[in-house]
Design brief:
The complex is a heterodimer. By secondary structure, chain A is mainly α. Chain A folds into two domains: 97 residues, Orthogonal Bundle (Rna Polymerase Sigma Factor, Chain: A); 77 residues, Winged helix-like DNA-binding domain superfamily/Winged helix DNA-binding domain (Arc Repressor Mutant, subunit A), CATH 1.10.10.10. Chain A is built from eight helices and no strands. In chain A, helix 1 packs across helix 2 and helix 3 crosses helix 4. The relative contact order of chain A is 0.10. By secondary structure, chain B is mainly alpha-helical. In chain B, helix 6 packs across helix 7. The chains are: A mainly alpha, B mainly alpha. Chains A and B meet through helix 1, helix 2, helix 3, helix 5 and helix 6 of A and helix 1, helix 3, helix 4, helix 5 and helix 10 of B.
């Protein structure tokens, strides 16, 4: 049991921000930053770029805050803006003919893998790195229609209903695509599931 | 054939169950199926490892991320678009009254006191009538201004053009106020309704 007071609903924070209390928007940023950065990181594969784009997304959302429609969840809106921003970014990259096969050369800032595994020492670290690379590559090899749903669910932490709203798909289709995507991942990651 | 179909449905349900998305009634059916399906039992045992593996691939967000977002927030555009006070509208009205007084003065008439006020009011009324809508008022005003170039002095024409423009600005601001109730108010109401 914790002493934390229950979280204020997103819509209350938005209303307060629109009334001039900017710090409430800061609460929204802190509430969603982990999910947003992870979502963008999985799509862009660049830790720094994911942060920069997440920042841009929050700025865009802030500027359009008065157009937020409370009929939909804030998270759905936020991730829709993020999804469009990520697609634009990927298009820009293609135009710049940057290879999509490997992370950018010289980019040392690739973030920290959070593995709960108790493995220590050089072997453990190597195994962690291999596992991280395997997860990333397995996700990237998924067809886009599965990949984006997997990333939205596992890294954006959106519910099935939120994903259905965001993608404009029936709930059953979302569940089915996630199932197929996960089956493919299970097959590809089987070596790492026995650790 | 029917068995395969059912099996695939149950397989999909296993993934939903592992993700906490399976309804209670379906869970009972799944349990019954598991009693007779060794393949599904094996699959079920492996799924927690897959979900753990996927969630282990999250990256940490930079510590200063939220502060960076908050320090880069631009002045809110919506604040200017949806003013919460009447100050701007009152200022525009004051300027218009000044301009109309100037117009009455420039007309060379001998109006004073109540007569001047009536003339100013008449000027407003005729502008409103002539406009009969924002665009119509603009075009009509423009036409009148062009007519004035032919018959009036350039100063008079310029002041009249400013007057027409000012009336339109005032209209726009007032219409925006009445059409779009303050967003914070709207969100507050909606959140109370849904809460």
């Amino acid at each position: 049991m914790t002493n934390e007071s229950p979280q204020k609903p997103d819509v209350d924070l938005i209303a307060a921000a629109l009334d001039g209390d900017q710090e409430r928007f800061g609460e929204l940023v802190r509430r969603y930053q982990g999910r947003l950065v992870n979502y963008l990181y999985r799509l862009l594969r660049d830790y720094g770029e994911a942060h920069d784009l997440a920042q841009e997304v929050f700025l865009k959302v802030y500027q359009a805050l008065d157009r937020y429609n409370p009929k939909y969840k804030f998270s759905t809106w936020l991730f829709r803006v993020a999804q469009n921003a990520a697609i634009d970014q990927i298009r820009k990259r293609r135009l710049q003919l940057v290879s999509m096969d490997r992370p950018k050369a010289g980019n040392e800032d690739q973030g920290t893998w959070e593995f709960p595994s108790g493995e220590r020492g050089p072997y453990g670290e190597l195994r962690n790195i291999e596992r991280g690379v395997a997860i990333q590559e397995s996700i990237e090899r998924l067809p886009w229609e599965y990949r984006e749903l997997i990333v939205l669910r596992h890294y954006g932490e959106l519910s099935y209903e939120e994903i259905a709203t965001l993608k404009g798909m029936p709930l059953g289709t979302v569940k089915n695509k996630l199932f197929r995507g996960r089956q493919m991942l299970k097959e590809r990651l089987s070596d790492f599931m026995t650790d | 054939m029917q068995h395969d179909q059912d099996h695939n449905v149950y397989l999909e349900w296993l993934y939903l169950e592992a993700d906490g998305g399976l309804a209670g009634s379906d869970r009972a059916l799944l349990q019954r199926h598991l009693l007779s399906c060794a393949e599904c039992r094996r699959e079920r045992e492996q799924l927690p490892a897959l979900f753990d593996l996927l969630s282990s691939g999250r990256v940490e967000v930079r510590e200063d991320f939220a502060d960076r977002v908050m320090s880069s927030l631009p002045p809110a555009g919506w604040e200017a678009r949806h003013p919460r006070t009447w100050t701007a509208a009152a200022a525009v009205l004051a300027v218009l009254i000044g301009l109309s007084a100037l117009l009455v003065g420039l007309s060379g008439g001998e109006l004073e006191g109540v007569g001047a006020v009536v003339a100013i009011a008449e000027l407003f009324r005729s502008t409103i009538t002539a406009g009969s809508g924002l665009l119509a008022a603009s075009w009509h005003g423009l036409g009148m201004a062009i007519g004035e170039v032919v018959v009036g002095s350039p100063v008079q024409t310029g002041v009249f053009a400013l007057f027409v423009l000012g009336v339109n600005v005032l209209f726009v601001r007032l219409l925006m106020r009445s059409w779009r109730r303050p967003v914070a108010e709207r969100l507050g109401r909606d959140s109370k309704r849904s809460g």
